[in-house]
Design goal:
Distance between the termini: 74 Å
Oligomer: single chain
Helix content: 40-55%
Number of strands: 10
Largest sheet: 4 strands, mixed
Radius of gyration: 28 Å
């Protein structure tokens, strides 16, 4: 028999309060989506109202005790929210305080509205991948699975890039979910969700971690298998490296197939399979309007940069005074039983707290976004004055996090899907982040500088004798850049250039 024993063990578990989770979610939302998010909150929480400053009439409270009790029974309030309600500042104290509604996150507050009028920032547009994400989410909603697995799958779908690939490791996804959703899972379970759920979504190939896996997912989906799909699967699974290098004779010899069937199979791979399922024609034509989250202008007279955040059409919010009066009425209502009165008071208080948290989270979001963009603007000042990509300095999330005094994951959420309107066009914030490389003189340069040199070199190369990665590496080394050949290959691929023999 096994011996049963007891022991004490200390385990550290990271838990986020509902207020922290709310802020993390709001930080990720781009400006164009904020109005929709605010409207959703207004619809779900009657204690939250639009602050109409032109309305001088007092709200009149009515005896809605029965309605409140009815709402309480229908409303789904999580146990965690209930537990944390007592830890928050009492809503009565909050309502007595003057809320700072005059905060305008601008380096030149007097000219902020004037600058917004001069720049028609709503005209900027870009090809959006949101329709692809929405389609994947809609497919998930039709699949039977446990609620927590659906939350995990939905989170993973949100991490799929525009091409249809999952670029983050399972371990990173575990950490992300723990921090942003307070969901504790394992890398093994993430892998299970990816292979059994995500990779079954249409278009097939979605959720692959690399090109080889993407092509194999598509080939394995073909039923019944054809001679071409069967041979293609053998080529991609066993000889993928030779396939990418076009070592076709080597593959034919290994598979012992004739020229005709091999050519048919290669043609099948190149014409029937999609290396980027997320960029298929079904999604490529979807165009959405994007509103910049920031506007950077140059004051020529003072030779300084000015940062503003367009207010757009977002409404000002306030906590409902009608609900405050309702709380007092319920508190003094002797016709109710103690149990019903306490239940109604708890319900109203939770709604008031939720309204308070949302308003404060919006304010914190705005200030965090402004401080982050301000730090980026100061770090990349030379670029904003000149528009020259060669002037972009090496910068990673940690650099900005230390200036803003925030966590790296917070800065990551701020940067995600955010755009800044500059004198040189509409630019995603992630554009300003790049790796650091060192020259032979010890100077640090950005990877943007290396990419610009690669673009220039390939654009002006002899098309009959194109530069290979080793040639590019030698050229950069001669210019004083200490760059390895594999780094050159990585940047070349990121820029969309094929290997030298395929550029002839």
């Amino acid at each position: 028999m096994q011996e049963i024993s007891q022991r004490q063990e200390q385990i550290m578990i990271q838990r986020l309060s509902p207020r922290q989770i709310l802020l993390m979610k709001l930080l990720q939302i781009p400006t164009i989506m904020m109005e929709q998010r605010i409207n959703e909150e207004l619809e779900s929480n009657p204690a939250l109202e639009i602050d109409d400053k032109n309305d001088t009439k007092e709200d009149k409270s009515e005896d809605n005790t029965n309605d409140i009790l009815s709402d309480k029974q229908d409303d789904n309030i999580s146990g965690e929210d209930n537990d944390n309600a007592n830890d928050m500042d009492d809503w009565e104290e909050y309502l007595r305080d003057d809320y700072d509604e005059d905060y305008i996150p601008s380096s030149n507050n007097q000219n902020a509205d004037e600058q917004n009028e001069k720049i028609n920032y709503k005209e900027a547009s870009y090809v959006s991948g949101d329709s692809y994400q929405e389609d994947l989410t809609a497919q998930l909603n039709m699949m039977p699975m446990q609620e927590e697995d659906k939350k995990i799958a939905t989170f993973i779908v949100g991490c799929i890039d525009a091409g249809g690939y999952i670029t983050r490791s399972s371990e990173d996804l575990v950490n992300d979910m723990l921090f942003s959703m307070n969901i504790s899972t394992t890398a093994e379970h993430i892998e299970h969700i990816i292979t059994t759920v995500i990779q079954r979504l249409e278009p097939i190939g979605t959720g692959a971690r690399n090109l080889q896996e993407c092509l194999l997912l598509q080939l394995r989906h073909i039923q019944p298998p054809t001679p071409e799909s069967t041979l293609a699967q053998r080529i991609i699974s066993k000889h993928f490296n030779d396939f990418t290098k076009k070592h076709f004779n080597k593959i034919k010899a290994a598979l012992k197939c004739n020229d005709e069937e091999f050519e048919r199979t290669i043609n099948y791979i190149t014409t029937s399979l999609n290396p980027k399922p997320g960029e298929s024609a079904a999604y490529a034509d979807e165009v959405s309007m994007v509103t910049p989250d920031f506007i950077v202008t140059i004051d020529e007279r003072k030779h300084k940069l000015e940062l503003t955040m367009p207010k757009s059409d977002l409404p000002e919010l306030k906590v409902s005074h009608r609900y405050q009066q309702m709380y007092d009425e319920i508190k003094n209502k002797n016709s109710m039983s103690e149990t019903d009165r306490r239940a109604a008071m708890d319900f109203v208080k939770q709604k008031l707290n939720a309204a308070q948290w949302f308003i404060e989270a919006l304010s914190q979001r705005e200030q965090t976004l402004y401080r982050t963009m301000s730090a980026i603007m100061n770090k990349q000042e030379e670029y904003f004055f000149t528009g020259d990509e060669m002037r972009i300095k090496p910068m990673i999330l940690k650099d900005i996090a230390s200036v803003v005094e925030a966590d790296i994951s917070t800065i990551s959420r701020v940067v995600k899907q955010k755009y800044v309107l500059t004198p040189y066009g509409l630019i995603p914030l992630k554009f300003f982040f790049s790796e650091s490389l060192t020259t032979t003189t010890g100077e640090e340069v950005s990877s943007h500088e290396i990419r610009s040199i690669i673009i220039d070199a390939i654009s002006n190369e002899d098309k009959n004798n194109p530069l290979n990665d080793q040639d590019l590496c030698a050229m950069l080394n001669e210019k004083g850049y200490k760059v390895a050949r594999r780094t050159i290959a990585k940047y070349r691929e990121q820029l969309g250039y094929p290997v030298a023999r395929m550029r002839k």
